[in-house]
């Protein structure tokens, strides 16, 4: 089974990303910039195909029975200036706010001053049948797909910690003056300001 198949059958997806915005939340421009600057050399056609495939996968979040997608993104990922173009990151930050309005999408930011180190990115996919749960740990050469009970429990525990220490989730329905403390939306808006 590949990532797209696992996503299509998911009830819940828990994702931690220390360096990039998760693929299911990426804009076309952000995704294209990542592929162009990728670790593996590829032709323009291959990069374009990869971007289109990623955008196609995103439809799972707005389908008939969309999974709950909860992402914890390290603040470092939101500072990257891909291809030296601030407009790419500005569009991406706005997209995070937009997608957080979906009832099935939760976005939290883990700030630089948080108590947890960067760590490795992973996605825990939980389908209706719990025994088929899978953790995907991406790697340059070949991603790891872990499905044993111990791995699922371990990554669930890691994600629970990340969720606990990250800033409160983006809530785009709350007016700016109602934010009484530091939260994910406030941090994203602060990062947006210099990109105008």
TrEMBL record:
Residues 2-172 form the DUF5753 domain. Pfam families: DUF5753. It comes from the Bacteria. GO terms for molecular function: DNA binding. Keywords: DNA-binding. InterPro entries: DUF5753 (IPR043917). This is DNA-binding protein. It comes from Streptomyces sparsogenes DSM 40356.
């Amino acid at each position: 089974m590949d990532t797209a198949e696992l996503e299509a059958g998911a009830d819940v997806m828990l994702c931690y990303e220390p360096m990039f915005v998760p693929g299911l939340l990426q804009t076309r421009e952000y995704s294209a910039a990542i592929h162009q600057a990728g670790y593996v050399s590829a032709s323009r056609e291959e990069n374009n195909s990869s971007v289109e495939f990623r955008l196609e996968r995103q439809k799972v979040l707005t389908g008939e029975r969309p999974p709950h997608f909860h992402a914890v993104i390290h603040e470092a990922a939101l500072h990257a200036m891909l291809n030296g173009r601030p407009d790419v990151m500005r569009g991406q930050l706005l997209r995070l706010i937009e997608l957080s309005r979906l009832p099935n999408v939760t976005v939290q930011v883990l700030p630089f001053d948080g108590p947890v180190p960067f760590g490795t990115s992973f996605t825990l996919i939980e389908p209706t049948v719990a025994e088929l749960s899978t953790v995907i740990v991406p790697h340059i050469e070949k991603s790891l797909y872990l499905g044993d009970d111990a791995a699922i429990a371990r990554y669930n525990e890691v994600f629970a910690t990340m969720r606990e220490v990250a800033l409160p989730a983006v809530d785009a329905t709350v007016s700016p003056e109602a934010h009484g403390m530091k939260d994910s939306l406030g941090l994203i808006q602060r990062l947006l300001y210099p990109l105008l």
